[in-house]
Amino acid sequence: MDSLFPLPTGLIAVTGDEGCGKTHLLRRLSGDLPTPQSLVDAIWLDLSLPGQDDSTPAQVWAALQARCPRWSEGLRHELAQALDLLPHVGKQLYMLSAGSRRKVALVGLLASGAQVTCLDQPYAALDQASVKVISEFLSDMAEHASRSWVVADYEADAQLPWARVISLS
Fold this sequence. Notes:
By secondary structure, the protein is α/β, with parallel strands linked by helices. The protein has helices at residues 22-30, 57-67, 73-82, 98-111, 128-141, and strands at 10-15, 42-44, 116-120, 148-153, 164-167. The model has no long low-confidence stretch (mean pLDDT 94).
């Protein structure tokens, strides 16, 4: 984890094979697994939203909004619309596909306003139109002056302008 600090703003890729510790690193960084190096204003979610089958997307977002002081309701709405989630906001998560559940979590993470947003395999189970939305969002945020997006995946998306790429082999 020391190789991440100081954490640059913009996009940070954490790459590696299955089981090399990408998710563990994101969870430690965000404080989901507390360590002395957890960041105060960082967020990570299991994108499958386990244990929330009876919740609706609207309830998931309301819970995140309550814990995220810089939440952007405008961005939440814009992303929900771009990811075609508006017809599903009142449905319980168990009624949604794996991809739609992940989109609900991604919308919440991206709208959180956290200084450090940890995204764990953000493209998994998404349709191509949704991959494009997430990729364009990340590209737009690449030069953000005060926020960081730490993206864990098998490899770094070659289309994105990474501030740092960290390989966990």
